[in-house]
Design brief:
The model has no long low-confidence stretch (mean pLDDT 96). The protein is built from 18 helices and eleven strands. The chain is of the alpha/beta class. Bound molecules: pyridoxal-5'-phosphate. Pyridoxal-5'-phosphate binds next to helix 11 and helix 15. GO terms for molecular function: D-serine ammonia-lyase activity; hydro-lyase activity; pyridoxal phosphate binding.
Length: 433
């Protein structure tokens, strides 16, 4: 391969990559639209009474599954002191790590798709009409109806948790196909919700392939397809408008003079891609979205830099795909998401696993916020945006140098709340070379 960044990532070196395909937002035309996001928002609003009934923990947000946006000035100062980040403006954390029900960003896409399927089945069977109070779907009669159906999904862990818990609440039979990277506690937690967990010795793509095949063989089974699903993507995209309200509450402006930088850990691409699409719809060229991936599993970067998307895997360039970031342990990206991201994504960072644990301890010590290792990848963005020549050039070329003092940086914290106490203790002690 002659693309320089591909050489670097094939050697498992840490890298920053700026997307040469990024276009002014006004010139971009996409297969997904703001109407798709609004359709998802409306559906989630219809389900809010049902969500409150099944998950009382969501009552104070009226059945909306939403997380806080938290300024983290002490972490910001620490990144500057310990790593010389040089970041000015304000650093914040979007705490999807603490989302209700699933404790990860998957509570957006995963639960949304389960509800979408539930609505489709319920409307078809005449259990509800669009204007009804959907809390009737939590009745014993409805649960009995849903019990005839199965939902299946392939997962490295968190998607399985989100879909497993939500589907079990509706009443479905659930089968989660888990890759070898999935952590034991995630499998145990799912089984405790009555979910059937099928374990594979192979990686994520293999788990998805098997799950898809088994589900397709059963007419009453629905497969949630993380590699291709537009529904999942829209569930994630809903985050954007809610973030806008939260920024307004904090009196933070995003416009030409006040750029917004967002850093999101990336696995197959659905979660960071959906969030990015929503943010670009709202703020266009004033928001700059970067994904972060482990050096052994930079599948989205590889797919985008080569233009091959899901036709190339990290194993094809000699990487293992193995990482402590279980949520990011994906060897082949979503082709659907990669293509949508082509004109939207600003760039990517890759990092070694050891930083996951360092950033985890840094955040815990400075701000008393716990995240799981995968989520901590987000901090590589603010830590190193100004360290790499590639991203410094991006800032210069976009005329942002003078605006950086008024910028907002959001590290998208994608998971952590459900990590059991003993596992947390183990993570806190983990030091890698
Ligand atoms: C799934 C996940 C991601 C990435 O989402 P994808 O849709 O796989 O790209 C990031 N962080 C955590 C904690 C996750 O569980």
């Amino acid at each position: 391969m002659e693309i320089p960044v591909v050489k670097k990532i094939a050697a498992a070196e840490e890298a920053a990559w700026v997307n040469p395909g990024l276009r002014p937002y006004g010139e971009v035309s996409l297969e997904v639209t703001m109407e798709d996001i609004e359709d998802a928002e409306d559906r989630l609003a219809r389900f809010a009474p049902f969500i409150v009934k099944c998950f009382p923990e969501t009552a104070d947000r009226g059945g909306l599954i939403e997380s806080s946006l938290t300024p983290v000035p002490k972490m910001q100062a620490y990144l500057d002191k310990a790593y010389g980040s040089g970041i000015r403006g304000r650093l914040m954390v979007k705490q999807d790590s603490h989302l209700a029900i699933a404790g990860s960003v998957k509570a957006r896409g995963g639960i949304y798709e389960v509800l979408k399927h539930t609505e489709d089945l319920a409307l078809e069977a005449g259990l509800i009409t669009i204007g009804d109070d959907y809390s009737v779907l939590a009745s014993e009669a409805c649960r009995k109806f849903f019990r005839q159906y199965t939902i299946q999904v392939g997962s490295t862990g968190n998607l399985g948790l989100s879909i497993g818990i939500a589907s079990a609440a509706v009443g479905y039979e659930v089968i989660v196909h888990m890759s070898a990277d999935a952590r034991q506690w995630k499998k145990d937690m799912l089984r405790s919700h009555g979910v059937k967990v099928v374990e594979y010795a192979s990686d994520y793509s293999e788990a998805v392939k098997n799950g898809r095949r088994e589900s397709d063989a059963d007419p009453k089974s629905y497969f949630i397809d993380d590699e291709n699903s537009k529904n999942l993507f829209m569930g994630y995209a809903v985050a954007a408008k809610r973030l806008r309200s939260q920024l307004e509450e904090l009196d933070v402006k995003v416009d030409e003079a006040h750029p917004l930088f967002v850093y999101i850990p990336c696995g197959v691409g659905g979660a960071p891609g959906g969030v990015t699409f929503g943010l670009k719809e709202l703020w266009g060229d004033n928001v700059h979205c970067f994904f972060v991936e482990p050096v052994q599993a930079p599948c989205m970067l590889l797919g985008m830099a080569t233009g091959l998307h899901n036709d190339i895997s990290v194993q094809d360039v000699g990487l293992t795909g193995l990482t402590h970031a279980d949520g990011l342990a994906v060897g082949r990206p979503s082709g659907f998401v990669g293509k949508v991201m082509e004109p939207l994504l600003s760039g990517e960072f890759t990092l070694k696993d050891k930083w996951l644990y360092e950033y985890m301890r840094n955040l815990l010590e400075t701000e008393d916020i716990f995240l799981e290792p995968s989520a901590c990848a987000a901090f590589d963005g603010p830590a190193r945006l100004l360290k790499y020549e590639e991203t410094r050039a991006y800032i210069r070329e976009h005329g942002l140098e003078d605006k950086m003092k008024d910028a907002v940086h959001i590290a998208w914290a994608t998971g952590g709340r459900l990590v059991p106490e003993d596992v947390r203790e183990e993570y806190k002690k983990t030091c890698l070379d």
